[in-house]
Write a structure and sequence with these properties.
The structure is a homodimer of 232-residue chains. The first copy, chain A, is mostly helical and 232 residues long. The first copy, chain A, has 13 helices and no strands. Chain A is flat. Chain B binds a DNA duplex (30 and 30 nucleotides) through helix 3 and helix 4.
Chain lengths: 232, 232
DNA sequence: TAGTCACTCGCACACTGTACGACAAGACTC
DNA sequence: GAGTCTTGTCGTACAGTGTGCGAGTGACTA
């Protein structure tokens, strides 16, 4: 007998201070949320971790793979209720809202989604649980895939449009309200009264509320359309 | 009197061979369609035009601005029928299909859309004509903006998902069918029968057709949802 | 003939992802 | 204790990126 387990356990635990993939993912996520996709470079990330730039490549094959990890990490934040508890309709409603707010917390998501559709474990369970909700509505087979796809497409498209607008304002150094009035002014020069009115609606009143209302209105349309499909 | 208009006109036309913005936009669009967003660099574009790299910057302030021009250029390809001719429902259907096929022709579109929402002239008229369709359905004011936004969000999300999947296969050097069977195999290891069946549906049978069916199914849901909104 | 305008372009800067190979520290075997 | 293996770090280097700057050039005007 050379050692008690206790000291031995201490020895087995990382003796040399070392980078971990979890650590990298966590820090990368923070940078991404704070500075956007353009603000994430391997060198800056390494600096933030206090390591050499190329050390990261031992833990992660490539930057794109790191982003895949980040996407799946974030999918894990989405709540999908059990259909037994919520019923298919309010369950899907909650799911859509949870997906939306996850995207709002991580505004870089839509941009990368259209380059690298994630197939990680969290994306998988999201699919499973989503299909369970749709199945509770009585839709099965191919149509279940389609119906779930419709909800996800809408949420991604809608939330994506919102983050894009906010990003545009940020880039121009304006608040969204300032951007809205700027757009309104630019429509004044055109003779297009339809767009003028639309722009005026956006420029006057609470924009955050309008984004939210737009989302719930569209979600209602989608859910109502699915409900109509069931009855027939 | 110094010159006849005829010779004068010839003189006024570009005497020195010179780059034009239209030319740049056209060539950039070709490269983008052929090689994707990552394949477009200012140097390569200039080389393709037979000019020095920084010459482009006289005609276009920055690469991002060039992409804005390209986005609006492409919006111009979308057909939006007059509501008087098609009625709101089939008019919106045609519009959505036209938007989808435009995105499929220019697969880089979704990716850039979520960074730079376009506000160019073509985007404007697209908005006007879209709102006209919705107005024909009897929806006005805020709700018209919302309803149109729902359709566009769905189309963008759905078509975006499709191009992302195709892009993923391309990157892996596989056909979409090969990708689908690869995904099916990867689900075999998991005990998740729901996703297994879903993956099997995708792996067996015509994938192009399935993408199309998925789109029309979702579009039907959206239109039905809007129709339900009108009746009440 | 001189001057102005419209445009081109080479150079340079700061930055990117990442391949490569040298290095080191702890763990394992004899 | 000595030697080898595994795990991990990191400096250097390469090929690329967007673009600011300033010099240069051809055509037109006064």
């Amino acid at each position: 007998m050379t050692e008690s387990i206790w000291t031995r356990k201490l020895k087995t635990s990382p003796a040399r201070e070392t980078l971990t993939r979890e650590q990298i993912v966590r820090t990368a996520l923070e940078t991404l949320d704070a500075e956007g996709l353009a603000g994430l470079s391997m060198r800056k990330l390494a600096a933030k971790l206090g390591s050499g730039a190329t050390s990261l490549y031992w833990h992660v094959p490539t930057k794109d793979d790191l982003i895949d990890l980040l996407i799946d990490e974030v999918w894990g934040e989405i709540d999908i209720p059990e259909p037994e508890l919520a019923g298919w309709r309010s369950g899907t409603l909650l799911y859509a809202h949870s997906m939306r707010s996850t995207i709002m917390r991580h505004p870089w998501l839509p941009e990368v989604m259209y380059t690298r559709p994630s197939m990680g474990p969290n994306a998988m369970t999201m699919g499973t649980r989503g299909l369970a909700l749709i199945a509770a509505a009585g839709i099965t087979g191919r149509n279940a895939d389609f119906a779930l796809g419709t909800v996800m497409s809408f949420v991604l498209g809608s939330a994506g449009g919102e983050v894009a607008t906010r990003e545009m304002a940020r880039r121009a150094g304006q608040s969204i309200d300032q951007l809205a009035t700027a757009v309104l002014e630019s429509t004044q020069h055109l003779g297009d009264t339809t767009m003028q009115e639309s722009a005026r609606r956006r420029a006057t009143g609470d924009i955050d509320g309008m984004f939210y209302d737009s989302f719930t209105y569209g979600l209602e349309i989608v859910l109502e359309g699915i409900a109509a499909r069931i009855k027939n």
